[in-house]
Design a protein that fits this description.
- This protein is an all-alpha fold.
- The chain has one domain (2-103).
- The protein contains four helices and no strands.
- It has helices spanning 2-28, 32-49, 57-78, 86-103.
Length: 106
């Protein structure tokens, strides 16, 4: 399960990071090169997600969604300097519990 979480974190950083670069290009007038790099990083996100050991696309993306939520909260805190409130922390923790239940091997 540790490998699955590591791949989810890598995929999340690629998705959020790539999206952030495209956002900076389109919303804040940064150079087009930043948008292109963001597009490449977003492509890598898709590749990283396929490295999961689970056969079901739906299971991989459903579980990844919970990890993505946690990473998005942390990204907002670390990069956008917006401190999460208690409800965001509780929601993120619930998501991680859900991910763990989904990935639990019987």
């Amino acid at each position: 399960m540790l490998r699955a979480y590591a791949l989810f974190v890598l995929a999340g950083l690629a998705e959020i990071g790539g999206g952030y670069l495209v956002w900076q290009w389109l919303r804040h007038g940064k150079p087009i090169g930043m948008g292109i790099v963001g597009g490449v990083v977003l492509f890598l996100y898709g590749v990283i997600a396929t490295r999961q050991e689970f056969a079901s696309f739906g299971k991989v993306y459903a579980a990844y969604g919970g990890v993505f939520i946690v990473l998005a909260v942390l990204w907002g805190w670390g990069i956008d300097h917006r401190r999460p409130d208690l409800s965001e922390w509780i929601g993120a923790a619930i998501c991680l519990v859900g991910v763990t239940v989904m990935l639990w091997k019987r």
